[in-house]
Amino acid sequence: LPEKLLPLFETTDECKVVDGGRKILITASSGGIALVEVKSKKVLFYAVAANAHSAEILPGGRVAVAVSNSPDGNRLILYDLSSPEKELFSDSLPWGHGVIWDEDREVLWALAGDDIRAYRLKDWNTTQPALDRVLMVKLPEEMGHDLYPLPRTNKLFVTTTNFVWLFDRDKKTFQKYGAIDNTLNVKSVCVNPVTGRLVYIRADEGQWWSEKIRFLNP
Predict the structure, then answer these.
(1) pLDDT 10s digits, 112-168
(2) Which residues contact 169 (CB under 8 A, 6 or more apart)?
(3) What is the distance, to the nearest Å, from the Cα of residue 20 to the centroid of all Cα atoms in its chain?
(4) pTM of the entire predicted model
(5) DSSP 41
(6) What CA–CA distances, in Å, run from 110 to 5, 54, 115, 146?
(7) What is the DSSP letter of 204?
(8) Is the bond into 129 cis (omega within 30 degrees of 0)?
């Protein structure tokens, strides 16, 4: 990683396992984006985007990044793994906080502050690929924060300020998720697809981060 980029990873806000656990995709609100090979710790890709909050690998070696509130933020940005720091495409995404590639439905889900959006790949085999927004569904509460699949279901976890929700990708509906006792300021939720064990992060009182992670089941 270029030394000048090291300060851009001071406030990591997402680390997502990709490629069967062999790589980790990292974003930081301080501006850094990186794809790291776990075994070698080698940086395979890096980019800079103001207030980066979430990233996802797309077919064909491309990367979608949701960037949040900042003068150059509130966007969904598209990169290619072979071209660090070069933007291929962007679309408005107010308070951008989450991106998930849905291989079964061939859409990219993106979380904004007030809604969840779906994009289809457009002109993907050209030098000017794009993401075509095909759906917007209003959130049941403002301030969407985290977007992540509930394994072996058609549901996506969506966290907001006060609740954790499950979004049905087929019916396009929301329901409250009741397994977590205190859902205020939950930042991230993940379920082990084999054991069902749940891990989540909830902001410490008076902060927007936490010094601990919490487990359920067991």
Answers:
(1) 999 999 999 999 999 999 999 999 999 999 999 999 999 999 999 999 999 999 999
(2) 102, 105, 109, 154, 155, 156
(3) 17
(4) 0.95
(5) -
(6) 26, 9, 9, 10
(7) P
(8) no
